[in-house]
TrEMBL record:
Protein name (database record): Prenyl transferase
Cofactor: Mg(2+)
Pfam families: polyprenyl_synt
InterPro entries: Isoprenoid_synthase_dom_sf, Polyprenyl_synt, Polyprenyl_synt_CS
Keywords (A to Z) from UniProt: Chloroplast, Isoprene biosynthesis, Magnesium, Metal-binding, Plastid, Transferase
Similarity-based family: Belongs to the FPP/GGPP synthase family.
GO terms for MF: metal ion binding; prenyltransferase activity
Amino acid sequence: MTTSYIFSEIEKDLENLNSNLKSMVGARHPILNAASEHLFSAGGKRLRPAIVILVAQTTLNNNLIQSSHKRLAEITEIIHTASLVHDDVIDECITRRGVSTVHNIFSTKIAILAGDFLFAQSSWYLANLNNLDVVKTISKVITDFAEGEVRQGMIRFNFSISMDEYIEKSFYKTASLIAASCKGSAMLSAVIEEKQNQCYLYGKHLGLAFQIIDDILDITSSSQSLGKPIGSDLKSGNLTAPILFALTQSDELKYLVGQEFEDKNDLIKATSIVKLSYGVKKAKDLAEEHVQAAISSINCFKNLNQDKYHNLVLIGQYILRRIY
């Protein structure tokens, strides 16, 4: 069974999600509406809503997933997209998923307003789930996003940061949403609290693995396949797992980072050093550890709903295979 099977199994749900997203975020103002249309037309794998749906299937033990699960999947994607709009402004990205970013097409002001609008829309739909526990769990994520951005901004070009600090920042920026949405999906299934928390841990470790692989791709991939310029993290001083591992091996890399790549060829040199070091392999090993931790977290569902449990295992494999 290939990892593509998981997405084909829930293809209809994801198709409905794509059409619903555009109608859910329709804005009265034509500029905001155009910005929203542009964002959701860019596509993407819709990994986060896919995980919400798969957790719902697993925790419901073969019962049909509810409309509230589908709505939570949509809310999760809106929150994620809103965070990307703001991230792109902060990081001064020109492209995302191979298309121009909102602030590059319109303006920085419109991009910030579009991100705020999407966060507001997600909050409205979240409140209408009429489940206070889910609202509390998901709304905390927006605070975590801000925390992650502040932390990242404060440690730019600081090669003395620890791997624990990197993981903590990655949790706030990426894993928090996946963890919370997994728990929220389990809450809507009305499983016991222990199983809700196990779904949270599954999402947390899956999210960390996803971020680590993303950080590897920023070094090893091509601009065309990545949908944005390679080395973007390194250029902005965001020191990720492969870079941090490589720094322990190379004084030259420390020098280049310390000089903030002041010469035009410094970034190319630094990227080459990271590729030739053991940084990429060690980062991949770290991602694999988190995928294994994610799978271990949901062992309680293995005998309860084996087929759907296996889909959650395959998601972890899919995340790791992104680097091939």
